[in-house]
Amino acid sequence: MLDTATLPFTIEPNANPVAASEREALLANPGFGRVFTDHMAMIRWNTEQGWHDARICPRAPLQMDPASSVLHYAQEIFEGLKAYRTDDGGATLFRPDANARRFAESARRMAMAELPEALFLESIRALVRADRAWLPSIDGGSLYLRPFMIASEVFLGVKPSAEYLYMVIASPAGAYFKGGAPSITVWVSDDFTRAAPGGTGAAKCGGNYASGLLAQAEAIREECDQVVFLDAVERRYVEELGGMNTFFVMDDGSLQTPPLGGTILPGITRDSILTLARDAGMTVREAPYAIDQWEADAASGRLRESFACGTAAVVTPIGRVRGTSRDFRIGNGGPGEVTTRLRAQLVAIQRGQAPDPHGWVEYLA
């Protein structure tokens, strides 16, 4: 079997790429998740050959058998990370090694083949090199990268698949939230939970997001931007938003976030924020925080700021919290000082504009 650490990628250029003029028009206002680049990465795995057939090829629809196991048993995982255009016209990746590790951990939890970290990283680098022209130059723009893996064996039966297809697609992105609002309003879900102990909450799999869509739809109906999930056992403690981790800034300058414990996704942006806060000498707590306490602290002024964070949204202030029996504002309802500072520091590192003491940024030649 070929050493997967040195598995070569075959490069198949797109014979009909998007015209440069059309590409530039798309990059002027790409939105989020609607525009895609010319190429994609692809690697296959099966029990006989292991990882093989690594390619950068033209982005195109997949042809799948209707009995492909992902369609019936939901063996699927994904990641999200970004490439950034630097001031000198180069490109950076932010902590791709952390995404590679989390991807392998998600595969392990979902009983899927684990992609070697070296292959994950090379697939990302190769795709960004192929589609470097798609890196937006607009303020706040980035190239969002979506690695994912699906069970591709054709069979009906409850067992781990014997074949997997790993792919990476890329999408130039602007602001995650429509309109680029200075803060968001969130809706507390009373009826639905995201994950339970022993489940797949710590894995980045599609099922976690599918189970939250009904709650997110309720939030949208209530004219909120995101849903907030409480814990599945006591329905008391704040866990995370539909796709982001949560933070709380107290009047003593300390920072608190719900603890990891198998029900919360170990966000890479979350970990980065914790590290930057500790570097700044802030007191940081990873501890449970009850929804009633959130409301009481907001009312008393003990809580000064709240924010959500994730790869897509980066750091986004939470200005208002609503639910069937609650409605409260946090601070002045807009971005707070600590939130603004941490976001600016993180973005500057990601874009190669500030020192990188932790070696998080990879520059692509």
TrEMBL record:
GO terms for molecular function: branched-chain-amino-acid transaminase activity. Its cofactor is pyridoxal 5'-phosphate. Keywords: Amino-acid biosynthesis, Aminotransferase, Branched-chain amino acid biosynthesis, Pyridoxal phosphate, Transferase. It catalyses: L-isoleucine + 2-oxoglutarate = (S)-3-methyl-2-oxopentanoate + L-glutamate; L-valine + 2-oxoglutarate = 3-methyl-2-oxobutanoate + L-glutamate; L-leucine + 2-oxoglutarate = 4-methyl-2-oxopentanoate + L-glutamate. Pathway: Amino-acid biosynthesis; L-isoleucine biosynthesis; L-isoleucine from 2-oxobutanoate: step 4/4; Amino-acid biosynthesis; L-valine biosynthesis; L-valine from pyruvate: step 4/4; Amino-acid biosynthesis; L-leucine biosynthesis; L-leucine from 3-methyl-2-oxobutanoate: step 4/4. The keyword Transferase applies. It comes from the Bacteria. Its EC number is 2.6.1.42. Pfam families: Aminotran_4. InterPro entries: Aminotrans_IV (IPR001544), Aminotransferase-like (IPR036038), B_amino_transII (IPR005786), BCAT-like_C (IPR043132), BCAT-like_N (IPR043131), BCAT_family (IPR033939). Acts on leucine, isoleucine and valine. Belongs to the class-IV pyridoxal-phosphate-dependent aminotransferase family. This is Probable branched-chain-amino-acid aminotransferase.
